[in-house]
Amino acid sequence: MMTLALQRLQNTFGYDSFRPPQDQVIEALLAGRDALVLMPTGGGKSLCYQLPALVRDGVGVVVSPLIALMEDQVRALSLLGIRAAFLNSTLDTESAWQVEGALRKGELDLLYIAPERLLQPRTLELLHHCRIALFAIDEAHCVSQWGHDFRPEYLKLSALHEQFPAVPRIALTATADARTRQEIIHRLGLEQAEVFVRGFDRPNIRYRITQKQNARSQLKRFLETEHPNDAGIVYCLSRRKVEETAQWLSDQGWTALPYHAGLSAEVRQAHQHRFLTEEGVVVVATIAFGMGIDKPNVRFVAHLDLPKSVEAYYQETGRAGRDGEPADAWMVYGLQDVIFLRQMLEGSDAGPEQKRIERQRLEAMLGLCEITTCRRQSLLAYFGESEHPPCGNCDTCLDPVETWDGTEAARKALSAVYRTGQRFGVSYVIDVLLGKTTEKVTANGHDRLSTFGIGTDLDLKAWRSLFRQLVARGLLEVDTEGYGALRLSAACRPLLKGEVCLELRQDKRQSGGRRRQVSTDQRLTLPQRELWEALRGLRRELAEQQDVPPYVIFHDATLLEMVQRQPGSLGQLAQVSGVGKSKLERYGDAFLEVLQAHRGDAADL
Ligand code: ADP
Ligand code: ZN
Fold first, then answer.
1. How many domains does the chain have?
2. pTM here?
3. pLDDT tens readout for residues 512-527
4. 177/218 same-domain check
5. What is the pLDDT of residue 50?
6. Could you list the residue range(s) of the whole structural domain that residue 551 is in?
7. Domain for residue 177, yes or no?
8. Beta-sheet pairing, 300-303 with 232-235
9. I need a surface site. Which of 171, 258, 378, 509 has the fewest CB within 10 A?
10. Which residues lie across from 478 on neighbouring strands?
């Protein structure tokens, strides 16, 4: 059976070998066992269920919440010569009947289905009359009630096990900390499943977190110097900021499109479509965008606001560089972000238990921002991989952070907060520390305090940096209502009593400017670049003709390999990774023609 699987991998998908642990997962399913697969984005999860579905008798039923993606997935599979279809609410009755007919006649290899559709009694009834190869539950973390992608219908998927006990099940996700992992196993009844975890590391992603000064101009500089022609995603927290940022980027000459839940379904659909089918589009979005975006050549993900948890950060940044080529995860963050997220959390009407969990998650996120050691190490440790060496591909590795002893300054700050009555926000307390006789300060009589003017050894920026770090570390609390008044927390006691010292980050003026990433086409020689452009041109043409995203025809990596190997025959072309039988038949001649013409050009030189 495994030999059969390997043959299908080579013939149908055009790949040489499995990427571990794909082979083990496939083996388990072929033997009829259940599997839980945790793999990073771009790790190759789809093959884990697609291949056994092809090799085993019957149809593979894939449950996914990502309705918008199903049509594309099915089309991409069809181009590989795989018989696939989908069932969800976007389908009209007529087409749904056709799919159901094909299913009944056993004419499908793969069926993508929305969970609510699957759980309808008539669908379950229909499936009882079919031969089913396996059930794949994609985005399995949606079953977690604490997670940000919670889907209530996912809780009912345990019914599959009860109704089809003989059919193997595979659950897959790219994000699951230990807690979520347990929840998936428990809620989906996967206690017997073999668990496969592939390291979460995404070595091609460069992580950078910079202090926010002027977010827009920082973003502009980042895009201009590093990604002038690349596709990417810019995340903001609010709809308004999404709109404004998209508008501003457009004014600056970028193709930038907004995406958030407040836009109509048509507009969102249209913007997503352009992002997938055109090259070099920047989408500015709230977190509503991106789940299941499987565009492989997203070259950067930029955050203008802080995500609520490391999981969210990891998932959002994980949308960059699925093709394994260098990509950037870039973020600016500042004092206001910390205050805002803390207020939002404390002010929400979640129950105390959920608040406690969310607070922990935010702590971890803030910790990631403030650490002075390798970001990747910290990120991976969060997901349970604690042995990773410093990575050499994050800002703190590339550009080590200096620290300073902030013990004394922190004591002054805490004291100023205390003596002004714990009723004021950061700016006011800094005024007092700097000895500014503003109207408000004098009116309150705070110019007579012993802390008035004791902080003139630091400037405004240094104080803001210090307060940010005190709030991030939970030494100061922020009022949830009103203007963000600061209060001492119990955690600052040891510091005030002189029992501990405080190492703080020395913020950089501007980081990330040097050590630039080099984009794909900058790495090619001139003639190679011409061929690369010609191949991309052909790909675009074919994609437009068939109304699919260019990468569905061939990935960038496949085109790059063509540039490097310059195949001269169908046989040689078939050797290129990503060129399977069906695509060779469909596109082989057209690509050979371009390669041939280019060889002619080169000979003329
Ligand atoms: P995930 O769902 O885990 O994010 P995908 O299944 O979309 O990842 O796979 C990511 C990319 O890796 C895809 O372009 C896929 O074609 C490619 N890929 C997967 N498995 C292999 C393999 N064994 N050899 C080469 N490429 C692979
Ligand atoms: Zn690092």
1. 4
2. 0.80
3. 445 566 666 667 888 8
4. no
5. 98
6. 521-604
7. yes
8. parallel
9. 509
10. 486
